[in-house]
Write a structure and sequence with these properties.
The structure holds 2 protein chains of 2 kinds. Chain A is 54% helix and 14% strand. Chain A is built from 17 helices and 15 strands. In chain A, strand 11 and strand 12 form a beta hairpin. By secondary structure, chain B is an alpha/beta fold. Chain B has a single domain, classed as STAS domain (Transcription Regulator spoIIAA, 2-Layer Sandwich), CATH 3.30.750.24. Chain B has 4 helices and 5 strands; from the N terminus they run ββαβαβαβα. Chain B has a 5-stranded mixed beta sheet. Classes of the chains: A alpha+beta, B alpha/beta.
Chain lengths: 698, 109
C-alpha cells in the first residue's frame, strides 16, 4: 500500500533522529568533560525522544507485512531467534566490553557507559517490537475479525499505558495496579489463542519449545542488563524510562511464556494429532488409489496394505467371498493354518461376521488353546446393505493393542472400499448391458437385411408375408428363389438361440440356400439340375455340422413349387407342419410328415430322417407356412395359440385373398395374446394358388 | 424349474417340474454334464410336471444325446404331456430318443 509505504518512509528518519536525540541528551546528562560546557537538557527531552523512538520502532514493525508465511511456524521462530539472538549477543558483548574497559581504565567518565546504554536501549526496543509483532501474527493466525479488533484495542491500551508510564506521572498505587492487572488479564486472554500449535508435529513442537526458551533467554539477558544498570551509580537515565522498559518486558515475556506453556502442554497430544493426520492422509491415499484400481483385486489389495500400515498390525488377513473370481483374499505374517484356526474359533462363538474387538486374547480360553502369539484382534466385516463381501482380520502381538479409534478408521476404510467395489460392479454391469444392447441391435439389423424386401410376383400365385422380430431377437428367417421353368423355391426356418449367434446362423442358412439352389451343370437330366428338398436338407445338415454349436439346431422347410406341373414338393426338417386348404376336398388340414431338425445328428445317417412330400395343387388351394412364434404365442391364461385355432382360422378365411387371410390370422392372434409379451419371432407366409390362367397382355 | 434326482442301482431318474426355458435349461445342463451321470446304465427323465420346453431346453438333450450314446447310457423319457410330446415330435426327436408313456415301461427297457 502506498500510504503505508509513505508512512514507513517518514517513520524511519524520525525514529533514527529520535534515537540520536536520545543519545545526545543521555551524553549531555552524563556530563562528560567534553560536553561539560553544554547545558544539561531537561528530563522531558530524554523521555520524549525515547517515547518517539519506541513508538516509531513499534509503528515500523506494525506496518511490515505479516512475517508468517503459510503455516511455516518453525521458520518464523528461526528468524525470530536469529534476529533477537544477534541483538542480545551484541548487548552482552557491549556490556562485557564496557566492563572490560572499566576494569582496565577505571575512570569516572560516563560517556562510554552512556553510549553503550543508549545502544542497548535501542536494541532492546527493536527486540521487543519484533517479538511483539511476531506474537501478533501467531495470535491472529486464522483468527476471527473479533479477535483482530480485540488485539488492536489491546495494542492501543498497552501503548497508552506505556507512554503514560514514560510521562512520569504516577497514578495512585491501587489504580495503577488495577490498570496493569486489567491489561495483564486481557493479555492472558489473548495469549490463549494459540491455534498454530495444532499445526505442528511432535518434532516441530520440540523445536518451537527450544526456540521459545531461547527467546526468553535473550529477553532475560536484556532484563538482567537493565536491572543491573538501574542500580549503577553511573545511571543517568530518568526513573520513568526504566519503569517503561520493565512494563514492556513484562508484556513481551507474557506471550513467550504462554506460548511455551501451550506448546509444552500440547506435546503429549502431538502423537494423537499425528496419528489422526496420518489416518486422514492414508484414507485420502486409499481413496485416490482405489479410484485408480481397475479390478476388484486391486482395490482389495490396496485396502489391505493401507489398513495393515495404518493400524500397525503385526499380522493380518483378508477373506473375500467372491462369487466367481479367483481372488479369495490375502495374508500378512500369518499362515493359512493359523487363519483357519482363528476363523474356526470365531465361528464357534458366532463372531465370524460381525464387528469384533478383543484386546485380551491371552485371557480367552479358546485363543489360549490355539497357542498363537497374538494378544489383540479386530474383525471388520466388509459389507454393504445388500451383501457381505468378506471380512478383514487384524492382529497385534501385545494385548490392549487396538483402540476404538482403530475400529473407527477400519470402518471408514472398509466402507470406502465397498463403495469402490460396488462402483466397479455397476460399471461392469452397465458395460455388459451396453454390449448386449449393441449385440441385439446388430443382430436385428442383420436379421432385417436377411429377410427379402420384395416378394416374388407371378400371375399364378399370390403371396403375403409377415415377419415380426421379438425384442430379444429370435432366429426366424425365410427366403425365395425363382428357378427356371416357372418354379419357385421357398425356404422358411428358425434358428435356436437368440442374438448375434442366431443372426449369424440365419445368414449361413441363407448362404447355403442360395449356394445349393444353383443349377448343376453336370446334371444328366432335368430332375437332377436342382436338389430335391430332402437332398437339400441333407446337404445343409452336413454343411452346418462344422459351425453349429452342440446345443443349437435349426428347423426349416423347403418348398419347390412347379407351376408347369401344377405340383409342389417339400421337406420338413423339424419345422412346424404346413397348413393347407384343399379346394377340391374343401378341407383344411396339416401335412403330417416326418423330418428331423438340422444339426441334431451330425453324421450321414441324417438322410434317413428326412422325407419328401409331393402334392399336386389345384387353383384356389391355400398354403400357410409359419414359425413356432405363431402357434406358441401365449394368451392371458398362459395357454398357447395352437395349431387347432390356426386351422379354424383358415377354415373361415380360405376364400379370401392371400393378404386378407394373413391379416385375419394376425388379427385373431393379436386378439388372443392381447397384453401378453411377445417371446419369440413371428413369421407367417400365406400362398394362394390362382384359379385362372394369366390373361394375355394386349 | 425344479429338478429332483433319484438314484437306484443302475438308474438315475431326473424329475422335471415346471418350464424348461433358456434360463432353467442351464441348470439341467449342469446336472447332465456331471461325469457320474454316465456311470448309470439308464437315465430316466420324468416329464410328468414338465409344462413347457423351449428350443434351448431341447438343445440340452440334443447336445448330450451323442455323449450318452457313446457311453452306452440309455436316455428314456416318460410321462410326457401331450403338448411337450408334440414339440419333440415336430422336431423329429421322437425318432431319435426313447419316449415311453409310463415309468414302468421306462424301467422295463
Amino acid at each position: 500500500m502506498p500510504s503505508s509505504q509513505r508512512l514507513t518512509a517518514t517513520l524511519l528518519p524520525l525514529t533514527l533522529l529520535s534515537w540520536v536525540v536520545l543519545l545526545v541528551s543521555t551524553l549531555l546528562r552524563a556530563g562528560s568533560p567534553t560536553t561539560a560546557s553544554l547545558p544539561v537538557p531537561p528530563d522531558w527531552v530524554t523521555l520524549v525522544a525515547q517515547a518517539v523512538f519506541a513508538a516509531g520502532v513499534f509503528m515500523y514493525y506494525r506496518l511490515q507485512p505479516d512475517p508468517l508465511r503459510g503455516t511455516d511456524f518453525v521458520g518464523l521462530f528461526r528468524r525470530l531467534v536469529l534476529g533477537p539472538g544477534i541483538l542480545a549477543s551484541i548487548c552482552v558483548a557491549l556490556h562485557l566490553l564496557e566492563r572490560f574497559v572499566q576494569y582496565q581504565l577505571p575512570s569516572s567518565d560516563r560517556t562510554f557507559f552512556a553510549v553503550i546504554y543508549t545502544i542497548n536501549l535501542g536494541l532492546f526496543i527493536l527486540f521487543l517490537a519484533s517479538t511483539a509483532y511476531t506474537w501478533r501474527s501467531l495470535v491472529l493466525f486464522r483468527s476471527s475479525g473479533r479477535l483482530r479488533r480485540e488485539w488492536e484495542l489491546f495494542e492501543i491500551l498497552l501503548g497508552g499505558t506505556l507512554l503514560f508510564q514514560l510521562s512520569g506521572w504516577e497514578l495512585p498505587t491501587p489504580l495503577s495496579l488495577l490498570v496493569i492487572g486489567g491489561l495483564a488479564i486481557f493479555g492472558v486472554y489473548l495469549s490463549g489463542n494459540q491455534k498454530w500449535v495444532a499445526y505442528l508435529n511432535r518434532r516441530q513442537k520440540w523445536e518451537v519449545v527450544f526456540m521459545q526458551l531461547a527467546i526468553l533467554l535473550c529477553m532475560t539477558i536484556f532484563v538482567a542488563y537493565f536491572v543491573r544498570v538501574q542500580y549503577d551509580p553511573k545511571l543517568i537515565a530518568p526513573e520513568p524510562q526504566h519503569a517503561f522498559l520493565l512494563l514492556t518486558v513484562f508484556f513481551a515475556a507474557f506471550y513467550a511464556v504462554m506460548g511455551l506453556f501451550v506448546t509444552f502442554s500440547n506435546l503429549p497430544t502431538a502423537g494423537v494429532f499425528e496419528q489422526k493426520r496420518e489416518e486422514i492422509l492414508s484414507l485420502q491415499r486409499l481413496t485416490q488409489l482405489i479410484q485408480r484400481g481397475q479390478t476388484e483385486e486391486d482395490v482389495y489389495s490396496m485396502l489391505f496394505d493401507a489398513t495393515v500400515q495404518t493400524v500397525e498390525a503385526d499380522a493380518a488377513w483378508l477373506d473375500v467371498e467372491a462369487r466367481d473370481e479367483a481372488y479369495k483374499g490375502q495374508r500378512y505374517h500369518i499362515t493359512e493354518e493359523q487363519c483357519t484356526a482363528i476363523r474356526g474359533l470365531l465361528a464357534d462363538y458366532n463372531l465370524g461376521h460381525i464387528e469384533y474387538l478383543n484386546n485380551d486374547l491371552p485371557h480367552s480360553s479358546g485363543f489360549r488353546g490355539l497357542e498363537l502369539p497374538f494378544g489383540s484382534l479386530i474383525v471388520m466385516p466388509l459389507r454393504s446393505a445388500k451383501r457381505q463381501y468378506g471380512a478383514l482380520y487384524m492382529l497385534k502381538n501385545q494385548p490392549q493393542g487396538f483402540d476404538r479409534e482403530n475400529l473407527g478408521i477400519l470402518q471408514t476404510f472398509t466402507s470406502q472400499t465397498i463403495l469402490s467395489i460396488e462402483n466397479l460392479q455397476l460399471v461392469a454391469a452397465s458395460i455388459q448391458n451396453e454390449r448386449v444392447q449393441e449385440e441385439l441391435k446388430i443382430a436385428s439389423t442383420v436379421q432385417e437385411s436377411l429377410i427379402p424386401k420384395d416378394l416374388p410376383i407371378d400371375n399364378w400365385f399370390e403371396i403375403s408375408s409377415h415377419a415380426l422380430a421379438a425384442k430379444e431377437v429370435g432366429g426366424d428367417f425365410y427366403d425365395f428363389l425363382h428357378l427356371p421353368g416357372q418354379r419357385l423355391a421357398i425356404l422358411i426356418g428358425d434358428v435356436s438361440g437368440k442374438g448375434i449367434t442366431a443372426a449369424f446362423h440365419m445368414a449361413q442358412m441363407k448362404g447355403i440356400f442360395h449356394a445349393l439352389m444353383q443349377e448343376n451343370p453336370l446334371a444328366r437330366n432335368e430332375r437332377e439340375k436342382f436338389p430335391v428338398p430332402s437332398k437339400f436338407m441333407a446337404m445343409a445338415n452336413k454343411a452346418l455340422i462344422h459351425c453349429l454349436e452342440k446345443s443349437s439346431f435349426i428347423t426349416a422347410s423347403l418348398y419347390i413349387i412347379d407351376y408347369e406341373n401344377r405340383g409342389f414338393v417339400f421337406a420338413r426338417a423339424g419345422h412346424c407342419h404346413t397348413l393347407y386348404y384343399h379346394s377340391i376336398k374343401e378341407e383344411v388340414s396339416y401335412f403330417h410328415t416326418a423330418g428331423l431338425g438340422l444339426g441334431i445328428i451330425r453324421h450321414d445317417s441324417y438322410e434317413k430322417h428326412i422325407k419328401n412330400q409331393f402334392y399336386d395343387y389345384n387353383p384356389g388351394d391355400v398354403m400357410v407356412i409359419y414359425t413356432d412364434g405363431i402357434v406358441e404365442a401365449r394368451g392371458t391364461n398362459k395357454e398357447e395359440y395352437g395349431e387347432e385355432r390356426l386351422q379354424q382360422m383358415l377354415e373361415r378365411t380360405y376364400y379370401l385373398e392371400a393378404d386378407e387371410i394373413k391379416n385375419m390370422i394376425l388379427e385373431d392372434l393379436a386378439e388372443f395374446s392381447r397384453g401378453q409379451p411377445m417371446h419369440d419371432d413371428q413369421t407367417l407366409l400365406v400362398i394362394k394358388f390362382r384359379a385362372s390362367q394369366p390373361e394375355p397382355t394386349v | 424349474m425344479k429338478i429332483t434326482q433319484q438314484t437306484t442301482a443302475h438308474t438315475l431318474t431326473l424329475s422335471l417340474d415346471g418350464e424348461l426355458d433358456a434360463s432353467s435349461s442351464v441348470i439341467l445342463d449342469t446336472e447332465l454334464t456331471k461325469s457320474e451321470v454316465l456311470n448309470h446304465q439308464k437315465v430316466l427323465i420324468d416329464c410328468q410336471r414338465l409344462n413347457y420346453i423351449s428350443s434351448a431346453g431341447l438343445g440340452v438333450f440334443i447336445s448330450h444325446l451323442q455323449r450318452f450314446q457313446d457311453a452306452n447310457v440309455k436316455l428314456v423319457f416318460f410321462n410326457m404331456q401331450e403338448k411337450v410330446h408334440n414339440v419333440f415330435e415336430i422336431l423329429g426327436l421322437d425318432t431319435l430318443m426313447t419316449i415311453v408313456p409310463s415309468e414302468s415301461e421306462a424301467t422295463a427297457i
